[in-house]
Design goal:
The protein is α/β, with parallel strands linked by helices. The protein has helices at residues 41-59, 75-94, 104-111, 119-129, 139-154, 167-178; strands at residues 2-7, 12-20, 25-34, 63-67, 98-102. The chain contains six helices and five strands. Strands 3-2-1-4-5 form a five-stranded mixed sheet. Helix 3 packs across helix 5 and helix 4 (119-129) packs across helix 5 (139-154). The protein is globular and about 55 Å long.
Length: 187
């Protein structure tokens, strides 16, 4: 299974691609989509959306795992984060990729063993679990890798994730199953 993990942020959105299952996994690539912090918020959302769409096209993930919003003290920050999550979810849905969402505490609990772990602890565990030569940086990328690893651990436990099969993909698979000759007829 290939998972695209996303750590949403209004200035820096982390991403990480991991292949594997709950027992074995490997990092494929990771990085960030950076938006100009001085730019209009709508322009930042567009940059993030286009970046996620490009990642989906480049890596062809089976699942897009996204970190859920946490309860922020600043309502404006929480609202902006919700907008970023919205464009990420829209990009995945539009591409027909299955979507899973995980709470920040569950992600930290899964990869570190402690739900209130620090960013550096998550980075170090990603280095160890994914057998990387150095900690993945910046922390947005390591957090995204952690989201992907969390999905691999909990994919068989739907009560822990809010997984949604993309309706477009389900319709396409039903159409192809009903018309097996059409599978090779695509141009």
């Amino acid at each position: 299974m290939r998972v695209l993990g996303i750590d949403p942020g209004s200035e820096t959105t982390g991403w990480g691609v991991v292949d594997g299952d709950a027992r074995r996994y490997a990092a494929v690539d990771f990085g960030t989509v950076k938006a100009n912090p001085r730019g209009r918020f709508a322009a930042r959302l567009l940059k993030i959306s286009l970046g996620v769409e490009a990642l989906i096209e480049r890596f062809c993930p089976d699942v897009c795992a996204v970190e859920e919003a946490f309860f922020a003290v600043n309502a404006g920050t929480a609202l902006k984060l919700g907008h970023v999550r919205g464009v990420v979810l829209l990009a995945a849905e539009r591409a027909g990729v299955e979507i899973a969402e995980y709470a920040p505490r569950l992600i930290k609990q899964t990869v570190v063993g402690y739900g209130a772990a620090e960013k550096q602890q998550v980075q170090e565990m990603m280095r160890v679990l994914l057998k990387l030569s150095a900690v993945p940086t910046p922390h947005d990328a390591s957090d995204a890798l952690a989201v992907a690893v969390t999905h691999l651990h909990h994919a068989r436990r739907p009560e822990l994730s809010k997984t949604k099969a993309a309706p477009a993909r389900a319709k396409l698979e039903a159409l192809l199953a009903a018309n097996p000759r059409r599978r090779g007829a695509r141009r």
